[in-house]
């Protein structure tokens, strides 16, 4: 593995290959990455007054941030994947700890994971949080939409059903009818979504 | 008129790339021309984009959960060689993970209550020390204090503050009340100067006296009156005025006109209490308190009441008159030099009345004899000087 090499702050061929594989949609590469760094993060969280479940939550959030950036192609790594993941998960766990602790929080860090500052993880985590907020608003808007719009939109956008299937499922006379209904629903969803999303505190 | 839903149909077709050439160009032109319209399209793309991203997020989460489950599943039968690859990784990267259930519980408890435990422990430690300290202070405060210790110390402090107070204090101490003689206010010591009835004592003993009584070892009492006082050298000369007084007889000591030498062994007799008390030491300095050359410093332990006592050397010559002591120094007593006494007597003798001449003893009889013999002879010539004051 790349750990311990003098140029450990730069990307190693293994990291590059892994990122390329993940970008191409290789699920095994993602699974490999996941397994590779899980012990580090779980150890970190357990050491800092977290449970196994906390570790899993934090790690999955962290990998999600990483994975989404890789898929977008917007990832700009200045360090190893390992360091980046550590920094992201550290930031996430710190946030959770401070929100539930009365006292100031000090984290015990593993020195071996190198300079976790200035990895760009901070901004990425903030962006991910913004994204989370957007998704939550969307989820709420969907819940307020009411039937059958909700099921229709969820079916089309979230469950990836075809218009044809939805037509039969909801008993529309033809696909065009279903489509029209869908557009109307979208307009309503738009109003709900933007009303909530824009006025929500930043 | 197109409804918003119709626009959405159009947008979707456009976004999916299903719009034919002219309609597409038409739409793009309209978007370029009409900012409101462009904004509407932007809203549409954001909405559908968010929906798609939301879906992707859910899928990813599902996927990761699956991976985690698979990992745990691969990890649990790791004792069996089946799941070599992931198990090995877990092992080598972090052996810390393999802790027992109890230990994990303990760890969780510790990490959760670390701060509280720390605060509780420090409070306990502080309480213990505060209690110990408090007990100690209480105990030292309630120790029985040796009688007179406190008062002496307070006096010393006062003396340090003010030299004038020091002098006054010395005088007060030296002339203080002897409790067993309730009628006299102060008492000191005196000794015979001539066989005709002159007695020497310290000036501060008879200071402010209304009447003076001299009492010998055999409890014989004589009235006396001050003849001359020398406040500067703390000397006073009394004369016995009783008619029945016939004289002391020959004095056993001579009065030394010169100075005594440093380190000479000296002794004194005095009445710091009802009985005569002997004290001895050596001449430690040829100047007195604050460098006063009229005095010697001697290392004799003296007490209030010793004032006015004779200071004699080894051969029984009178060399001084005990005057005071320094409270904040160890065993530092002061005595007026006998040379001043001699000078004083000489000046008095020059214009003395014929009825009361001064015949100073010229030769001592004490040289060569042992100390007890010396004292036996001496003590008949040492008196208590009792002073009465009008209030």
From TrEMBL, chain A:
Keywords of the record, alphabetical order, are: DNA-binding, Sigma factor, Transcription, Transcription regulation
Q: Pfam families annotated for this entry?
A: Sigma70_r2 (PF04542)
Concerning InterPro entries, the annotation shows: RNA_pol_sigma-70-like, RNA_pol_sigma-70_dom, RNA_pol_sigma70_r2, RNA_pol_sigma_r2
Q: Which domain of life is it from?
A: Bacteria
List residues of the RNA polymerase sigma-70 region domain.
33-102
Query: Is Transcription one of the keywords UniProt gives this record?
Result: yes
- Per its record, how is this protein called by name? Sigma-70 family RNA polymerase sigma factor
Organism, by scientific name, is: Hymenobacter ruricola
UniProtKB/TrEMBL annotation, chain B:
Which Gene3D superfamilies does its entry note? 2.40.10.120
Keyword annotations for this protein, in alphabetical order, are: Membrane, Transmembrane, Transmembrane helix
A matching Pfam family? Trypsin_2
Q: Output the superkingdom of the source species.
A: Bacteria
The transmembrane segments are: 115-135
Instruction: Report the protein name in the record.
Output: Trypsin-like peptidase domain-containing protein
Q: Which organism is it from?
A: Hymenobacter ruricola
């Amino acid at each position: 593995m790349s750990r311990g090499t003098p140029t450990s702050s730069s990307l190693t061929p293994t990291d590059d290959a892994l990122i390329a594989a993940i970008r191409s949609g290789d699920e095994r590469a993602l699974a490999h990455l996941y397994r590779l760094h899980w012990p580090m993060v779980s150890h970190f969280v357990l050491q800092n007054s977290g449970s196994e479940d906390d570790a899993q939550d934090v790690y999955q959030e962290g990998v999600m941030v990483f994975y989404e950036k890789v898929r977008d192609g917007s990832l700009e790594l200045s360090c190893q994947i390992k360091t980046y993941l550590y920094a992201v998960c550290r930031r996430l766990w710190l946030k959770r700890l401070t929100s539930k602790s009365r006292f100031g929080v000090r984290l015990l860090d593993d020195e071996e994971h190198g300079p976790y500052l200035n990895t760009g993880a901070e901004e990425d985590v903030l962006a991910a949080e913004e994204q989370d907020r957007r998704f939550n608003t969307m989820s709420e808007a969907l819940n307020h939409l009411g039937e059958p719009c909700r099921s229709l939109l969820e079916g089309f956008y979230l469950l990836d059903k075809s218009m044809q299937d939805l037509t039969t499922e909801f008993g529309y006379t033809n696909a065009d009818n279903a489509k029209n209904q869908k557009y109307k629903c979208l307009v309503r969803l738009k109003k709900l979504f933007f009303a909530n999303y824009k006025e929500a505190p930043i | 008129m197109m409804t918003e839903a119709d626009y959405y149909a159009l947008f979707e077709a456009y976004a999916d790339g299903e719009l034919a050439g002219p309609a597409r160009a038409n739409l793009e032109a309209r978007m370029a021309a009409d900012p409101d319209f462009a904004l509407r399209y932007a809203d549409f793309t954001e909405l559908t984009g968010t929906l798609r991203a939301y879906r992707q997020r859910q899928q990813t989460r599902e996927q990761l959960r699956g991976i985690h489950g698979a990992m745990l599943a691969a990890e649990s039968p790791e004792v069996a060689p089946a799941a070599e690859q992931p198990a090995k990784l877990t092992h080598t990267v972090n052996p810390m993970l393999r802790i027992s259930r109890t230990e994990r519980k303990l760890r969780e408890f510790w990490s959760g209550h670390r701060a509280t435990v720390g605060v509780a422990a420090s409070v306990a430690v502080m309480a213990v020390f505060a209690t110990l300290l408090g007990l100690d202070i209480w105990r030292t405060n309630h120790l029985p204090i040796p009688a007179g210790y406190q008062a002496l110390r307070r006096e010393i402090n006062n003396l340090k503050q003010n030299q004038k107070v020091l002098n006054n204090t010395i005088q007060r101490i030296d002339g203080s009340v002897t409790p067993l003689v309730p009628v006299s206010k102060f008492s000191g010591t005196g000794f015979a100067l001539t066989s005709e009835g002159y007695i020497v004592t310290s000036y501060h003993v008879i200071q402010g006296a209304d009447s003076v009584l001299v009492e010998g070892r055999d409890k014989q009492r004589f009235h006396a009156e001050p003849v001359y006082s020398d406040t500067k050298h703390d000397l006073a000369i009394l004369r016995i005025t009783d008619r029945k007084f016939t004289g002391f007889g020959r004095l056993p000591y001579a009065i030394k006109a010169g100075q005594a030498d440093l380190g000479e062994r000296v002794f004194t007799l005095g009445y710091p209490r009802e009985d005569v008390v002997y004290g001895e030491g050596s001449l430690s300095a040829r100047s007195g308190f604050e460098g006063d050359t009229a005095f010697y410093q001697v290392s004799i332990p003296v007490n209030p009441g010793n004032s006015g006592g004779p200071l004699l050397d080894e051969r029984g010559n009178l060399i001084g008159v005990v005057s005071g002591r320094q409270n904040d120094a160890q065993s530092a007593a002061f005595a007026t030099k006998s040379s001043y006494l001699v000078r004083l007597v000489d000046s008095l003798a020059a214009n003395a009345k014929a009825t009361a001449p001064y015949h100073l003893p010229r030769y001592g009889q004490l040289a060569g004899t042992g100390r007890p013999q010396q004292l036996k002879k001496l003590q008949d010539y040492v008196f208590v000087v009792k002073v009465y004051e009008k209030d």
